[in-house]
Write a structure and sequence with these properties.
The structure is a single chain. This protein is an alpha/beta fold and about 240 residues long. Helix content is about 40%, strand content about 15%. The chain has helices spanning about 5-15, 15-20, 25-30, 35-50, 55-65, 195-220, 230-235, 235-240; strands at about 70, 75, 80-85, 90, 95, 100-105, 110, 120-125, 130, 135, 140, 145, 150-155, 160-165, 170. The strands form 3 sheets. The chain has a 6-stranded mixed beta sheet with strand order 3-6-9-12-14-15. The chain has a 5-stranded parallel beta sheet with strand order 1-4-7-10-13. A hairpin with a 4-residue loop joins strand 14 and strand 15 (about 170). Helix 1 runs antiparallel to helix 4. The longest helix has 29 residues, at about 195-220.
Length: about 240
């Protein structure tokens, strides 16, 4: 297991790759609550694994008071983990997070059971979760998955897919996804709009149906014979001609 100093260097260094507002290491270490929360969690997690459960929970409670980030000391977190802004993030006891994962504020990795089993999500490496998203239950998100802001994900998601909505649905498979050559994909705003696409399909269908109705109406007028309703059906100019 890498030392805390090595992990801290990586956690601070990855901020510059994912937050253009970061200007110096000193600024990041002193003013970023997400970095503070991760550092304190790494200490609490080692206490937890060593069997010092009360000390670990006290450390986690202090971290929550200091940063407004609630990470259970039993959660397993990989390297270069970044919580942007930090506020309101909740990570449950049995959650597992891979390397190079980014969470925005308001994200919840929550459980769906009161039983003492695996009840929190597993996130692969390179996952990005947008602000306010909720990932619930013992589900697995594959590597490089993107979750749109305020989505609620309750089912497994294959690697390299994009998920949005309530409940979360895959709207962009790996085949149509642009893979960032630098490895860190922060373009979580460049995702398809399934509602807009559905509305556009309906509008296109309505236009086709209107064209068919107009065509049928014109054809029926041409097929009309002289009858009592002709003064109403035809324009005066047509009747004169």
């Amino acid at each position: 297991m890498p030392s805390l100093a090595e992990l801290l260097r990586e956690d601070v260094g990855c901020v510059f790759e994912r937050d253009p507002a970061a200007r110096s290491r000193l600024e990041v270490m002193l003013t970023y609550p997400g970095v503070h929360a991760v550092l304190l969690h790494r200490i609490a997690h080692r206490l937890w694994r060593a069997g010092h459960r009360l000390s670990a929970r006290l450390m986690a409670a202090f971290a929550r008071w200091l940063t407004n980030v609630d990470i259970h000391p039993g959660a397993t977190i990989g390297r270069r983990f970044f919580i942007d802004h930090g506020a309101g993030v909740v990570i449950g006891e049995t959650a597992e997070i891979g390397d190079d994962v980014t969470l925005y504020h308001g994200v919840t990795l929550g459980g769906t059971s009161w039983n003492k089993v695996k009840r929190h999500p597993t996130l692969g490496s390179g996952v990005l979760v947008g602000a306010g998203a909720k990932i619930l239950g013992p589900i697995t998100l594959g590597d490089q998955v993107r979750v749109g802001a305020n989505s609620v994900v309750i089912k497994d998601v294959p690697a390299y897919c994009t998920v949005v909505g309530i409940p979360g649905k895959i709207v962009q498979p790996k085949s149509s996804r642009r893979i960032d050559p630098h490895g860190i994909d922060l373009d979580h705003h460049l995702i398809p709009d399934p509602v807009g696409k559905a509305v556009q399909c309906l509008l296109d269908r309505i236009e086709i149906l209107e064209d068919e109705l107009v065509k049928r109406h014109i054809d029926s007028n041409h097929a009309c014979r002289q009858c009592e309703g002709e003064p109403v059906c035809r324009e005066p100019a047509d009747m004169e001609s």
